[in-house]
Amino acid sequence: MIALRQGALEIRQFLRSREQVVFTMAFPVLMIVIFASIFDGEIGGGVRFTQYFVTGMIATGLMTAGFQALAIQIPIERDRGVLKRLRGTPMPPWVYFAGKVLMVAFIAVAETILLLVVATLLFDLELPSSGRLWLTFLWVAALGTTACTLCGIAFSSLARTGRSAPAVVTPVALVLQFISGVFFVFTSLPTWMQQVAAVFPLKWMCQGLRAVFLPGSFGAQEPGGSFELGTVALVLGAWCVLGLALCLTTFRWTTRRDG
């Protein structure tokens, strides 16, 4: 119950920040409106650009909610002494993280639904046609969001101050988007760039979502010759484990100047 109350508090605080709401939730929607309006043709194989592009926008929305938002928000709270005060209360530490997880889940679900509604109504997005595809959508989104959330909490320890957090986090997020097939067809990127992207979760999130929204025959155009859903699950699961390990070993409740 206390975790639910903490989650509700985190969600209310998020909704009160107009800048956060606009950037986190509206950014993927704005991007698909812009890109789908400019590129309204096909990328090949009877697949419209919007159908391909929506997979990257969903994935980057999940990454923004989990990784980028937390990696910026937590250093700000640390800098303001919020974490230090919480650490001094009887509230168990896990409740703080549970609140963050619930907030990320709320944002991820809300922005994904909003994105699908806009893309379907305005750009004739074809939604998954079977329960199997929706199940794939759910586990890819769940694993990807979990990995990004844990990595966001771990990455929050790199920023020296709350003010520097956006400058540390935003370039990393943008680079990952450009090399992971969010804005471009992944196989059109240089081979070395594809190999670098394959180390990180976002590329596999995009690939897993392409298996949901694109025809099965389109998998032959992937670098591995198929959508490789087994590999998608393994890589995202590995990042969940690595992210948790980094959280447990690197998270700080106080700033460096506080010791």
From TrEMBL:
It is a multi-pass membrane protein. PROSITE patterns: ABC_TM2 (PS51012). Residues 19-254 form the ABC transmembrane type-2 domain. It comes from the Bacteria. GO terms for molecular function: ABC-type transporter activity. It holds the Pfam family ABC2_membrane. Belongs to the ABC-2 integral membrane protein family. It is found in: Cell membrane; Membrane. InterPro entries: ABC2_TM, ABC2_TM_bact-type, ABC_2_transport, Nod_factor_ABC_transporter. The chain crosses the membrane at residues 21-39, 51-74, 94-122, 134-155, 167-186, 232-251. The keyword Membrane applies. This is Transport permease protein. Keywords: Antibiotic resistance, Cell membrane, Membrane, Transmembrane, Transmembrane helix, Transport. One of its GO terms (cellular component) is ATP-binding cassette (ABC) transporter complex. The keyword Transmembrane helix applies. GO terms for biological process: response to antibiotic.
